[in-house]
Amino acid sequence: MRRILSLLLILIAPLGVFAAMIAADRHFATTGPDRSYVVRIAMPPAGGEPGLPAIAGPLDASRPLVVIDAGHGGHDPGAMAESGKGGGGGRLREKDLTLALARSLREQLLAGGGVRVAMTRDDDRYLLLEERSGIARRLKADLFISIHADSAEGGSASGATVYTLSTRGSSQEAERLAAAQNRADVVNGVGLSSIGDDVGAILVDLSQRQSEAGATELAKLILREGQGKLAFRDRPVQSAAFVVLKSPDTPSILFEAGYISNPADAARLASRAGRETFATVTAQAIRAWLARQSGVVASSGP
Fold it and tell me: What does pTM read for this prediction?
């Protein structure tokens, strides 16, 4: 009997102590003006879309529009590495590097005139992948470029890479887009609600393949303009099924500007000179691409 009582006491005692702690906390604890047991976070409306960013550059809406996306942001820092001497010491975060590179590219494009520019984010905010490319589509952008910094274990990998959307699975993606819930969607000026699913899938597929061809051409121009100025990987142009590139009617590329995990790349990306070189090369390639698309060289005037 004593043994049973001892076992019960061992089991019950911790529960009693825990209950006493809860009772004491409720009785004695108070909340001041800076403390609360409830944390309230404002959430966007269900199914809502982020607001559209401002467009900088000429007021003429006929001028080409480039949407620049700085990868990651907010609670998503992306890849991280020690910056070393070249970066002033401390911890490098991909989201900070991509924003700095995106701003440099924007300024370079605006300085040349004739091109309108918008950024998916110009501060430390988080956006879903679909929202990033969605902003470009809603703005009817001529080009979407998402900027990132790669990372690999060991720190030996280095160099920039330009990614386009992989053609593998493009038909399935076209079917998914054509059968999306929003039947009022428009692809290349044609409303999908006015046509059947099969025709819609074909339309989306053709539009997407045209966008992929344009993206591949831009990638080649970036390599041409960057020769001797930017360090590229052995396979500088690759394709992958990045969600952010799956816009059916906006040519889109993802530019990995270098490896944040590589000390030399990280120092270059974190330096002002490195950012300016990246921006100059990319802006020149974009202008050449826009000229080919329109048949007219982008004006150097406002």
Answer: 0.72
